[in-house]
Amino acid sequence: MPVGPRISAVVVTHAGGRLLDECLASLSRQSRKADETLVVVSNHRLPVTGAPALQLHTNVGYARAANAGARETTGEILLLNDDTRLDPGCIAALAGAWQGPGVYQPRIRLADGSGRLDNIGHGFFPDGAVWARGRNGPDATSLPGAPGGFSGAAVLIARSTWNALGGFDERYGSFGEDVDLSLRLLRRGVDVRPVPEALVEHHLGATWGRVSPEKLRLIERNRVRAAVRSLPLSALAAMPVATAARYAAFAGLAAVGRGPGEKVSLVAQLSALRGMVEGALDAPTYWRERRADASDWSLGEWAMLGRLWTARARWRDVSR
Predict the structure, then answer these.
(1) What is the total count of domains within the chain?
(2) pLDDT value of residue 257
(3) What phi and psi values does residue 88 have, to the nearest 5 degrees?
(4) Are the CB atoms for 278 and 221 separated by under 8 Å?
(5) Which residue blocks in the chain are alpha helix, DSSP H?
(6) What pLDDT, in 10s, does the model give residues 156-183?
(7) Which residues on adjacent β-strands are paired with residue 84?
(8) In 26, 143, 269, 271, which residue has its Cα 20 to 30 A from 193's Cα atom?
(9) What CATH number is attached to the domain comprising 210?
(10) pTM of this prediction?
């Protein structure tokens, strides 16, 4: 009899293939199995072996696909990208860490054989952008500070927590849906609980690449949307300056061959700027939703600023 909560593994895939097969094989090798597993295919019909599949027949984006998988399952929701691979003790460690409603973040290691971390959750920049905690650093079970956001690549979310916020905002499509949900959870006083004993390996950028123009457009569009909905007012007022400073820092790091801007083309940079403009045009919609959300907030402006400071992105992670 499985110990701990009932856990439903929801694997979202667009391309299927070898990486999906490896993900499902790792689920089958768990010392404590998931109580149910569902593959959600966000594409034209793809053959899936090894688990039941929900065929959506078109590319609906990660947010909508994950929501569909959550609706079709009944346990606590273990969301997984198809390019992840779980250590045999991963689900057992997550079940052992279970303390009721909330968000549980496993330790995610890069699957390139380097032994480096991908992340143990995300830290926030002042403008609402995120950076993976520990990215490209040595594998470690503890990091400075605390995660403010979870990684959509692999996370366990209590169903009651998920349902209380309606899951992901499907208008985001792909990228940033985890940032938006993380910020909305923080406003309600729900912290991300790191579970470093639960190890997942991740083929970073396997589907979209790391810095493709379309990926950067979606990231920046959705960042602005999430910021308008949930960031403190002082952070919103300072956001143009904070974003300019973030990109200036990236450019400086790229000039010495380090950091996230090293391989970003001019086309990708212009695409990111386009995304910011699109997000700004959407601001009135997300401002109205901010006002509707405010009645459920547990953290006011100063408390939210303090929480974001605790969960800030660390320079050592960004500058590697």
Answers:
(1) 1
(2) 83
(3) -55, -25
(4) yes
(5) 17-28, 62-71, 90-97, 159-165, 177-187, 213-230, 233-237, 239-255, 266-281, 283-293, 301-310, 315-318
(6) 999 999 999 999 999 998 899 999 999 9
(7) 202
(8) 26
(9) 3.90.550.10
(10) 0.93
